[in-house]
Amino acid sequence: MTDQASIQRVDTHLLRIPLRRPWGADVTEICVITVTVQASDGLVGHGFSWTPSIGSTAVQAMIDDDLTPFLLGRPATPSVWDEAWAHLHEAGGGGVTTIALAGVDLALWDLRARTAETSVTDLLGRRHDKLAAYASGVNLHYSHDDLVAQVQRWIDAGYSAVKIKVGGPDLAEDLDRVAAVRDTLGPGRRLFIDANQRWDLDTASRAIPALSAYDIGWIEEPLRADDLAGYIELRQRIDVPIALGENLHTLYRFRDFLDAGVIDIAQPNIIRVGGITPFLRIAELVRERGAQLAPHLLPELSAQLAFALPQTCWVEDVEDAGFAALGALTEPTGLHVTEGWAAGGPSLGLGMIFKN
Hints:
This protein is of the alpha/beta class. The protein is 37% helix and 20% strand. It is built from 11 helices and 13 strands. The strands form 2 sheets. Strands 4, 5, 6, 7, 8, 9, 10, 11, 12 and 13 form a 10-stranded mixed sheet that branches. It has a 3-stranded antiparallel sheet with strand order 1-2-3. Strand 7, helix 8 and strand 8 form a beta-alpha-beta unit. The longest helix has 20 residues. The protein is globular.
Protein backbone atom coordinates (compact mmCIF):
# COMPACT_ATOMS: atom_id res chain seq x y z
CA MET A 1 0.00 0.00 0.00
CA THR A 2 1.35 3.42 -0.92
CA ASP A 3 0.67 6.62 0.98
CA GLN A 4 -1.68 7.61 -1.85
CA ALA A 5 -3.90 4.53 -1.51
CA SER A 6 -7.48 5.44 -0.62
CA ILE A 7 -10.45 3.61 0.84
CA GLN A 8 -12.30 2.06 -2.07
CA ARG A 9 -14.77 -0.26 -0.37
CA VAL A 10 -16.08 -1.07 3.12
CA ASP A 11 -18.06 -4.25 3.77
CA THR A 12 -19.77 -5.36 6.98
CA HIS A 13 -21.34 -8.59 8.17
CA LEU A 14 -23.24 -9.21 11.41
CA LEU A 15 -22.41 -12.38 13.34
CA ARG A 16 -24.22 -13.74 16.38
CA ILE A 17 -21.86 -16.00 18.32
CA PRO A 18 -23.33 -18.27 21.04
CA LEU A 19 -21.56 -18.15 24.38
CA ARG A 20 -20.42 -21.45 25.82
CA ARG A 21 -21.11 -20.07 29.29
CA PRO A 22 -24.03 -17.57 29.09
CA TRP A 23 -23.47 -14.30 30.89
CA GLY A 24 -27.05 -14.38 32.17
CA ALA A 25 -30.52 -15.35 31.02
CA ASP A 26 -30.57 -12.38 28.65
CA VAL A 27 -26.99 -12.68 27.33
CA THR A 28 -26.55 -16.03 25.63
CA GLU A 29 -24.64 -14.70 22.62
CA ILE A 30 -22.36 -11.87 21.62
CA CYS A 31 -22.58 -9.86 18.43
CA VAL A 32 -19.66 -9.09 16.14
CA ILE A 33 -19.84 -6.83 13.10
CA THR A 34 -16.96 -7.77 10.83
CA VAL A 35 -15.51 -4.89 8.81
CA THR A 36 -13.42 -5.33 5.68
CA VAL A 37 -11.72 -2.31 4.14
CA GLN A 38 -10.33 -2.54 0.63
CA ALA A 39 -7.80 0.06 -0.49
CA SER A 40 -7.51 1.42 -4.03
CA ASP A 41 -4.36 -0.65 -4.59
CA GLY A 42 -6.29 -3.85 -3.88
CA LEU A 43 -4.96 -4.57 -0.38
CA VAL A 44 -7.48 -5.52 2.33
CA GLY A 45 -7.69 -5.00 6.10
CA HIS A 46 -9.90 -6.89 8.53
CA GLY A 47 -11.47 -5.39 11.66
CA PHE A 48 -14.55 -5.79 13.80
CA SER A 49 -16.96 -4.05 16.10
CA TRP A 50 -18.48 -5.87 19.06
CA THR A 51 -21.37 -5.64 21.48
CA PRO A 52 -22.53 -8.26 23.99
CA SER A 53 -26.27 -7.80 23.56
CA ILE A 54 -27.56 -4.35 22.64
CA GLY A 55 -27.19 -2.26 19.50
CA SER A 56 -25.51 -4.51 16.95
CA THR A 57 -27.83 -3.63 14.08
CA ALA A 58 -27.51 0.07 14.95
CA VAL A 59 -23.70 -0.24 14.86
CA GLN A 60 -23.81 -1.96 11.47
CA ALA A 61 -26.17 0.70 10.11
CA MET A 62 -23.89 3.46 11.38
CA ILE A 63 -20.97 1.94 9.50
CA ASP A 64 -22.93 1.24 6.31
CA ASP A 65 -25.05 4.38 6.14
CA ASP A 66 -22.86 7.08 7.71
CA LEU A 67 -19.22 6.04 7.94
CA THR A 68 -18.74 4.30 4.61
CA PRO A 69 -19.98 7.15 2.37
CA PHE A 70 -17.81 9.57 4.33
CA LEU A 71 -14.69 7.42 4.15
CA LEU A 72 -14.72 6.38 0.50
CA GLY A 73 -11.86 8.08 -1.30
CA ARG A 74 -10.11 9.14 1.89
CA PRO A 75 -6.63 7.86 2.84
CA ALA A 76 -6.60 4.19 3.81
CA THR A 77 -4.75 4.82 7.08
CA PRO A 78 -5.78 5.15 10.74
CA SER A 79 -5.14 8.90 10.44
CA VAL A 80 -8.74 9.33 9.23
CA TRP A 81 -10.06 8.58 12.73
CA ASP A 82 -10.37 12.17 13.96
CA GLU A 83 -12.23 13.35 10.86
CA ALA A 84 -14.54 10.37 11.01
CA TRP A 85 -15.28 10.92 14.71
CA ALA A 86 -16.04 14.59 14.05
CA HIS A 87 -18.34 13.55 11.22
CA LEU A 88 -20.35 11.22 13.48
CA HIS A 89 -20.30 13.49 16.53
CA GLU A 90 -23.76 14.93 15.94
CA ALA A 91 -25.11 11.42 16.60
CA GLY A 92 -23.15 11.26 19.88
CA GLY A 93 -19.57 11.60 21.01
CA GLY A 94 -19.48 7.97 22.15
CA GLY A 95 -21.51 4.82 22.27
CA VAL A 96 -22.83 3.55 18.94
CA THR A 97 -20.63 6.07 17.13
CA THR A 98 -17.35 4.99 18.68
CA ILE A 99 -18.24 1.29 18.54
CA ALA A 100 -18.87 1.72 14.82
CA LEU A 101 -15.63 3.65 14.37
CA ALA A 102 -13.70 0.84 16.03
CA GLY A 103 -14.48 -1.63 13.27
CA VAL A 104 -13.03 0.62 10.60
CA ASP A 105 -10.09 1.70 12.73
CA LEU A 106 -9.10 -1.90 13.46
CA ALA A 107 -9.36 -2.77 9.78
CA LEU A 108 -7.09 0.16 8.86
CA TRP A 109 -4.49 -0.84 11.46
CA ASP A 110 -4.67 -4.42 10.24
CA LEU A 111 -4.20 -3.18 6.67
CA ARG A 112 -1.23 -1.04 7.70
CA ALA A 113 0.47 -3.94 9.48
CA ARG A 114 -0.22 -6.41 6.68
CA THR A 115 1.29 -3.96 4.20
CA ALA A 116 4.43 -3.87 6.36
CA GLU A 117 4.30 -7.69 6.60
CA THR A 118 4.25 -7.62 10.38
CA SER A 119 1.85 -7.73 13.30
CA VAL A 120 0.16 -4.68 14.80
CA THR A 121 2.14 -5.31 18.00
CA ASP A 122 5.47 -5.21 16.20
CA LEU A 123 4.34 -2.31 14.02
CA LEU A 124 3.74 -0.31 17.21
CA GLY A 125 6.91 -1.69 18.82
CA ARG A 126 6.77 -4.68 21.15
CA ARG A 127 7.84 -3.86 24.71
CA HIS A 128 6.65 -6.97 26.59
CA ASP A 129 6.92 -10.66 25.75
CA LYS A 130 4.34 -11.58 28.36
CA LEU A 131 1.91 -9.93 30.74
CA ALA A 132 0.02 -11.17 33.79
CA ALA A 133 -3.54 -12.29 33.09
CA TYR A 134 -6.35 -12.59 35.57
CA ALA A 135 -9.21 -15.06 35.26
CA SER A 136 -12.62 -13.46 35.01
CA GLY A 137 -16.19 -14.68 34.95
CA VAL A 138 -19.64 -13.25 34.38
CA ASN A 139 -20.98 -15.30 37.24
CA LEU A 140 -23.42 -13.40 39.47
CA HIS A 141 -26.13 -15.86 38.34
CA TYR A 142 -23.98 -18.88 39.26
CA SER A 143 -24.91 -20.96 42.26
CA HIS A 144 -22.58 -20.89 45.25
CA ASP A 145 -21.17 -24.30 44.30
CA ASP A 146 -20.74 -23.40 40.61
CA LEU A 147 -18.90 -20.20 41.56
CA VAL A 148 -16.48 -22.05 43.83
CA ALA A 149 -15.95 -24.70 41.15
CA GLN A 150 -15.11 -22.00 38.61
CA VAL A 151 -12.58 -20.43 40.94
CA GLN A 152 -11.02 -23.84 41.56
CA ARG A 153 -10.65 -24.33 37.79
CA TRP A 154 -8.77 -21.03 37.64
CA ILE A 155 -6.48 -22.05 40.48
CA ASP A 156 -5.79 -25.36 38.75
CA ALA A 157 -4.97 -23.44 35.55
CA GLY A 158 -2.33 -21.41 37.40
CA TYR A 159 -3.92 -17.96 37.67
CA SER A 160 -2.65 -15.81 40.52
CA ALA A 161 -5.59 -13.37 40.33
CA VAL A 162 -9.32 -13.75 39.68
CA LYS A 163 -12.39 -11.55 39.36
CA ILE A 164 -15.98 -12.34 40.31
CA LYS A 165 -19.26 -10.46 40.17
CA VAL A 166 -21.06 -8.97 43.16
CA GLY A 167 -24.09 -6.74 43.48
CA GLY A 168 -26.93 -9.11 44.24
CA PRO A 169 -30.02 -7.89 46.10
CA ASP A 170 -28.78 -9.31 49.41
CA LEU A 171 -25.45 -8.05 50.77
CA ALA A 172 -25.24 -11.04 53.10
CA GLU A 173 -25.26 -13.36 50.09
CA ASP A 174 -22.53 -11.31 48.42
CA LEU A 175 -20.46 -11.60 51.57
CA ASP A 176 -20.98 -15.36 51.73
CA ARG A 177 -19.93 -15.79 48.10
CA VAL A 178 -16.85 -13.58 48.44
CA ALA A 179 -15.87 -15.33 51.67
CA ALA A 180 -16.11 -18.71 49.95
CA VAL A 181 -14.02 -17.51 47.03
CA ARG A 182 -11.38 -16.05 49.32
CA ASP A 183 -11.28 -19.30 51.28
CA THR A 184 -10.81 -21.24 48.03
CA LEU A 185 -8.11 -18.87 46.79
CA GLY A 186 -6.20 -18.76 50.04
CA PRO A 187 -4.13 -15.74 51.06
CA GLY A 188 -1.62 -15.83 48.23
CA ARG A 189 -3.86 -14.98 45.25
CA ARG A 190 -5.49 -11.69 44.37
CA LEU A 191 -9.25 -11.20 44.31
CA PHE A 192 -10.99 -8.46 42.34
CA ILE A 193 -14.74 -7.84 42.49
CA ASP A 194 -17.06 -6.23 39.94
CA ALA A 195 -20.45 -4.73 40.77
CA ASN A 196 -21.31 -3.87 37.14
CA GLN A 197 -22.95 -0.53 38.09
CA ARG A 198 -25.54 -2.22 40.34
CA TRP A 199 -25.27 -0.01 43.43
CA ASP A 200 -26.26 3.51 44.32
CA LEU A 201 -23.96 5.62 46.47
CA ASP A 202 -25.37 4.63 49.86
CA THR A 203 -25.46 0.91 48.99
CA ALA A 204 -21.87 1.01 47.73
CA SER A 205 -20.80 2.87 50.86
CA ARG A 206 -22.17 0.03 53.00
CA ALA A 207 -21.15 -2.91 50.82
CA ILE A 208 -17.56 -2.08 49.95
CA PRO A 209 -16.18 -1.73 53.51
CA ALA A 210 -17.88 -5.02 54.43
CA LEU A 211 -16.46 -6.81 51.38
CA SER A 212 -13.01 -5.34 51.96
CA ALA A 213 -12.59 -7.72 54.91
CA TYR A 214 -11.77 -10.37 52.29
CA ASP A 215 -8.72 -8.55 50.93
CA ILE A 216 -10.12 -7.35 47.61
CA GLY A 217 -7.72 -5.78 45.16
CA TRP A 218 -10.27 -3.48 43.55
CA ILE A 219 -13.97 -2.76 43.30
CA GLU A 220 -15.07 -2.36 39.70
CA GLU A 221 -17.91 -0.09 38.57
CA PRO A 222 -19.69 0.15 41.93
CA LEU A 223 -21.87 3.01 40.60
CA ARG A 224 -23.31 3.98 37.24
CA ALA A 225 -20.35 4.51 34.97
CA ASP A 226 -21.16 8.12 34.08
CA ASP A 227 -21.92 9.28 37.65
CA LEU A 228 -18.80 11.36 38.19
CA ALA A 229 -20.25 13.25 41.17
CA GLY A 230 -21.15 9.95 42.81
CA TYR A 231 -17.64 8.59 42.36
CA ILE A 232 -16.12 11.75 43.81
CA GLU A 233 -18.22 11.28 46.95
CA LEU A 234 -17.59 7.52 47.11
CA ARG A 235 -13.84 8.12 46.88
CA GLN A 236 -14.11 10.02 50.19
CA ARG A 237 -15.94 7.14 51.86
CA ILE A 238 -13.86 4.07 50.91
CA ASP A 239 -10.20 3.15 50.72
CA VAL A 240 -10.54 0.22 48.29
CA PRO A 241 -9.04 0.95 44.83
CA ILE A 242 -11.70 1.82 42.22
CA ALA A 243 -11.59 0.27 38.75
CA LEU A 244 -13.73 1.66 35.96
CA GLY A 245 -13.70 2.70 32.33
CA GLU A 246 -15.29 -0.12 30.33
CA ASN A 247 -18.30 2.17 29.81
CA LEU A 248 -16.42 5.43 29.28
CA HIS A 249 -16.25 6.09 25.56
CA THR A 250 -13.93 9.02 24.91
CA LEU A 251 -10.55 10.40 25.87
CA TYR A 252 -12.35 13.38 27.37
CA ARG A 253 -14.39 11.30 29.81
CA PHE A 254 -11.30 9.40 30.91
CA ARG A 255 -9.57 12.73 31.46
CA ASP A 256 -12.49 14.00 33.57
CA PHE A 257 -12.53 10.91 35.78
CA LEU A 258 -8.76 10.68 36.10
CA ASP A 259 -8.42 14.35 36.97
CA ALA A 260 -11.14 13.96 39.59
CA GLY A 261 -8.99 11.28 41.24
CA VAL A 262 -11.63 8.54 41.13
CA ILE A 263 -9.87 6.00 38.88
CA ASP A 264 -7.15 3.82 40.36
CA ILE A 265 -7.36 1.19 37.60
CA ALA A 266 -8.52 2.40 34.19
CA GLN A 267 -10.30 -0.19 32.05
CA PRO A 268 -10.89 1.10 28.53
CA ASN A 269 -12.61 -1.29 26.16
CA ILE A 270 -10.79 -0.96 22.83
CA ILE A 271 -13.99 -1.35 20.81
CA ARG A 272 -16.15 0.95 22.91
CA VAL A 273 -13.64 3.82 22.83
CA GLY A 274 -13.43 3.69 19.03
CA GLY A 275 -10.52 1.41 18.23
CA ILE A 276 -6.76 1.29 18.51
CA THR A 277 -6.17 4.96 17.65
CA PRO A 278 -8.06 6.42 20.65
CA PHE A 279 -7.08 3.50 22.92
CA LEU A 280 -3.40 4.37 22.53
CA ARG A 281 -4.15 7.99 23.48
CA ILE A 282 -6.15 6.90 26.53
CA ALA A 283 -3.38 4.52 27.60
CA GLU A 284 -0.88 7.38 27.43
CA LEU A 285 -3.20 9.64 29.44
CA VAL A 286 -3.58 6.93 32.09
CA ARG A 287 0.19 6.57 32.30
CA GLU A 288 0.67 10.35 32.60
CA ARG A 289 -1.90 10.55 35.40
CA GLY A 290 -0.22 7.74 37.33
CA ALA A 291 -3.13 5.29 37.28
CA GLN A 292 -2.90 1.59 36.46
CA LEU A 293 -4.23 0.18 33.18
CA ALA A 294 -6.25 -3.01 32.72
CA PRO A 295 -8.02 -3.12 29.33
CA HIS A 296 -11.53 -4.54 29.45
CA LEU A 297 -12.25 -7.95 27.90
CA LEU A 298 -11.26 -9.09 24.38
CA PRO A 299 -7.86 -10.55 25.35
CA GLU A 300 -7.02 -11.54 21.77
CA LEU A 301 -7.12 -7.84 20.90
CA SER A 302 -6.23 -6.22 24.24
CA ALA A 303 -3.11 -8.29 24.85
CA GLN A 304 -1.44 -7.59 21.54
CA LEU A 305 -1.83 -3.83 22.12
CA ALA A 306 -0.78 -4.12 25.76
CA PHE A 307 2.45 -5.81 24.64
CA ALA A 308 3.35 -2.54 22.88
CA LEU A 309 2.67 -0.13 25.78
CA PRO A 310 5.42 1.34 27.96
CA GLN A 311 3.53 0.44 31.15
CA THR A 312 2.65 -3.06 32.30
CA CYS A 313 -1.01 -3.90 32.67
CA TRP A 314 -3.36 -6.76 33.41
CA VAL A 315 -4.94 -8.85 30.65
CA GLU A 316 -8.51 -9.94 31.41
CA ASP A 317 -9.29 -13.52 30.39
CA VAL A 318 -13.00 -14.36 30.68
CA GLU A 319 -13.56 -18.09 30.91
CA ASP A 320 -14.54 -19.68 27.57
CA ALA A 321 -15.28 -16.29 25.98
CA GLY A 322 -12.28 -15.76 23.69
CA PHE A 323 -13.12 -15.69 20.00
CA ALA A 324 -10.88 -18.67 19.29
CA ALA A 325 -12.46 -20.66 22.13
CA LEU A 326 -15.89 -19.86 20.70
CA GLY A 327 -14.85 -21.18 17.30
CA ALA A 328 -15.44 -17.81 15.65
CA LEU A 329 -12.07 -17.32 13.91
CA THR A 330 -10.74 -18.84 10.72
CA GLU A 331 -7.48 -19.59 12.52
CA PRO A 332 -5.99 -19.06 16.00
CA THR A 333 -4.43 -15.68 16.75
CA GLY A 334 -1.35 -17.20 18.35
CA LEU A 335 -2.13 -15.60 21.71
CA HIS A 336 -2.00 -18.06 24.58
CA VAL A 337 -2.60 -17.74 28.31
CA THR A 338 -0.59 -20.27 30.33
CA GLU A 339 -0.18 -20.40 34.10
CA GLY A 340 -1.67 -16.92 34.36
CA TRP A 341 0.55 -15.26 31.74
CA ALA A 342 -0.51 -13.96 28.32
CA ALA A 343 2.07 -14.27 25.54
CA GLY A 344 2.35 -14.77 21.81
CA GLY A 345 0.03 -13.20 19.27
CA PRO A 346 -0.35 -13.06 15.50
CA SER A 347 2.50 -12.77 13.03
CA LEU A 348 0.52 -10.66 10.55
CA GLY A 349 -1.90 -7.79 11.16
CA LEU A 350 -4.35 -8.29 13.99
CA GLY A 351 -4.66 -11.95 13.07
CA MET A 352 -8.42 -11.89 13.65
CA ILE A 353 -10.48 -12.96 10.67
CA PHE A 354 -13.96 -14.20 11.54
CA LYS A 355 -15.85 -17.02 9.99
CA ASN A 356 -18.73 -15.46 8.07
